[in-house]
Amino acid sequence: MTKDVVILRYGHRVVRDYRVTSHCCLVARALGAKKIIIQGDEDGSIKTSVNDIVERWGGSFEVEFADSWKRVIEEYKKKKYLIVHATMYGSQIQKIESKLRKSSKILLIIGSQKVDSEVYDLSDYNVSVTTQPHSEIAALAIILDRLFAGKELDKKFKNAKIKITPQAKGKKVVKQTN
Amino acid sequence: MTKDVVILRYGHRVVRDYRVTSHCCLVARALGAKKIIIQGDEDGSIKTSVNDIVERWGGSFEVEFADSWKRVIEEYKKKKYLIVHATMYGSQIQKIESKLRKSSKILLIIGSQKVDSEVYDLSDYNVSVTTQPHSEIAALAIILDRLFAGKELDKKFKNAKIKITPQAKGKKVVKQTN
Predict the structure, then answer these.
(1) Nearest Cβ partner of B121 from A157, A169, A173?
(2) Which burial class, exposed, middle or buried, applies to A13 when counting CB atoms under 10 A from its CB (0-12, 13-18, 19+)?
């Protein structure tokens, strides 16, 4: 069963990718990944805003930066992570999800710019969410949902200062102030 | 079983929301919705780029614009669509998905700006994908995946000029030229 997922965001470009990479960070956190490593332009504003969410909404999600995607892949291979690359060209998630779930530790690579062909070769699995062009944010969400078999939707976030209680209508927010 | 899903993108703002709304359109198409109605600023460039994807990648997905979200909701209520609003404050998707799947026709509302409280009241269901802040693109993806019970991942797109054949390594693209 997969327990430990780290996301590698490939090729982040400052300004242009700000909103999409921010969404990737928040989706990674909300759907149970423990860390995102942003490769490309170092973008302190993303780290600040995600850390602010973690501070208020709880849990222990981390944002890191890396210059070299290759070094990140090599490092996680050494740590015995399965390397999985999300790409519309890869094997269909619905065909390989049960295989992937056998790995307790996964490094999941999601692209932005065109991804170097070496990433396809270095990855243990290239995986697609449909063979259609759409969104790395959506692919990330569906893959995490499949890796954690839906259990991530019930994840509790420790030390939260803000919590939402699900409601059929309206909003119920519990805030803890010191 | 849900067959017919129309997306209402609430409160689109030109420039600021371009990339996120574009992702919403492509995710809606790839994961089996038949149409997206963009409410807010009319943004011809999104329609052009999505139509270009449809032309090359097949299927019959449509992009429309609307001034008034309320009129869209009223129109689809009259047409017997179930009105479902994606919000982090709503009932958890994993608790209500089997109920939602009983509706063959669903209008799914996804926000951008802060959503008017009337949307919560007019909706038959308010539904959350985790109670954490993340991304309307991810919420859209997970909800469509649950509504179509994963079958949307095998959807075929008619009259495609480009098709991808899933591969463990590398890329296999079939292009049809006239």
Answers:
(1) A169
(2) middle
